[in-house]
Amino acid sequence: MLLLIPMVFLGFYKTYFSQLPEFNPKITWAHHLHAAIASVWIVMLILQPFLISNRKFKIHKMVGRLSYVIFPLLILSFLPMIARKISSAPAVNIFVPIGDCIILTLLYSLAIYNRRKTPYHMRYMIGTAIVFLGPTFGRVGALLLGLSESVTQNTQYTIIYLILLGLIGLDKKHKKDFRPYLLILVVWVVHQIIFNLLIEL
Q: Which of 11, 89, 158, 183 is deepest in the core (most CB within 10 A)?
C-alpha cells in the first residue's frame, strides 16, 4: 500500500502535480475535488494496517466509520469526469473508470459486510488498494514510457495478476483462506475481457 504513494506521484506528476500552483484551465474544480478525496482514501488505506499492527483498535474503528462518508464521496468524485468523457471519448475510455468504480464498490461492500471476519475484511480492502494501480500505471505507461493504451492496460492487468497470485501463494504457504483473492482475480479477468472487446470496436 505504501507503494501507492510514489506510483500516484509518478502517474499524476505530468498532468497534475507539476502544474502546482498554476493549473492548466482544463483542470477544473472536479479534478481538484477528486484528487483531494482520493488522497484521503489512500492515506486511510495506508493508515489502517499500521493501526492494527500497533493494536490501536479504537482508532482503526473510528477511521473505518469515517470511510462510510469518504468512500461514497470518492465514487461521486468520479462522476463529473466520466460525464465529460461520455460525449466525446471512445467506449473503452468510458468503460475503464466505470469498471474501476464498480470493482471498488464491490470490494469495499464485501469488506464492510465481512468487517467482523478480519481475514476476509483485510483481503477485500487490499483489493480496493489494487484498483488504484490502474489509473496510476495507466499514466506512467502512456505518459512516461510512451506505451499504447492497449499495451499499458494489459500490462496493468499482468501486474495485478502477479500481485494476486503472490498473495494467494503466501496464503497457501501459511494455510490461510485465500478465496477472497480468487474472487478479486476473477473480477479483474472479467474487466480485462470487456476492455479488450471494447478496444476492438
A: 11
